[in-house]
Amino acid sequence: MILQCSSVQSKLQNRRSSVHHKEFELAAEFERDSLYLADWPLCQLRLQNDANYPWFILIPRRVGMVEIIDLTQTEQNQLWRESAHLSVFLKAQFQAKKLNIAALGNMVPQLHLHHIVRYDTDFAWPAPVWGKVPALTYTKEALELLKQKMALLAVPT
Question: Which residue intervals define the domain HIT in the entry (predicted)?
Answer without folding.
Answer: 57-125
